[in-house]
Amino acid sequence: MPKHETGKHSESDLLHLVDNVNREEDVDYNRRSFLKAMFATGLTMSAATFPFSIHALTGKGKEALPQVKIADVKDVPRGGSVVFNYPDESQPAVLVHLSNGEYKAYNSKCTHLQCSVFWSQEQEKLVCPCHHGFFSVENGQPLAGPPKRELPLIELEIRNDAIYAIGRKVRHHA
């Protein structure tokens, strides 16, 4: 806006300042419009993922895994272990008979880079030799090394003096 020689705006110039306001454009780019758009986006995302949430909460779609005999109880002494595959031949697993008499089994692919994990009776830990990862045999949680996630737990059942794998739990709460 041009100024007069005095350096001030004339009264008619100030009256025409109102013409510089574009009401439509101002309404399009304000905080309220932004919040409305974010709320609509959130609502849309919630509606889109709702079926998946229900599916996960109800446990439907949980695959029925086979019940596979791993070994006879007499064949796994306390402190001993057995390597097997579960639920199919591509999934290596290890069964450990703990000193307290309990049996534990885990998928034996390291959660870091999928190297084979084995039972070390001397260290009383599950060991990944690739990067010196160690897992607790009690719960499959990583103890040291690069692994950050626990080993998937193989659910066991003992029937007629035989140990069966009956399911698998993938847990990520460490």
Give a verbal description of the structure.
With 174 residues, this protein is α+β, with helices and mostly antiparallel strands. It folds into 2 domains: 11-58; 68-169, Rieske [2Fe-2S] iron-sulphur domain (Rieske Iron-sulfur Protein), CATH 2.102.10. The chain is 22% helix and 29% strand. It is built from 3 helices and 10 strands. It has helices at 11-15, 23-28, 31-58; strands spanning 68-72, 81-85, 92-97, 103-107, 118-120, 125-128, 133-136, 142-144, 153-159, 162-169. The strands form 3 sheets. The protein has a 4-stranded antiparallel β-sheet with strand order 5-6-7-8, with no helix packed on it. The longest helix has 28 residues, at 31-58. The radius of gyration is 32 Å and the shape is elongated. Residues 68-165 form the Rieske domain. InterPro entries: Rieske_2Fe-2S, Rieske_2Fe-2S_sf, Rieske_Fe-S_prot, TAT_signal. One of its GO terms (molecular function) is metal ion binding. This is Rieske Fe-S protein. Pfam families: Rieske.
Descriptive keywords:
2 domains, 174 residues, alpha+beta, 22% helix, 10 strands, four-stranded antiparallel sheet, Rieske Iron-sulfur Protein
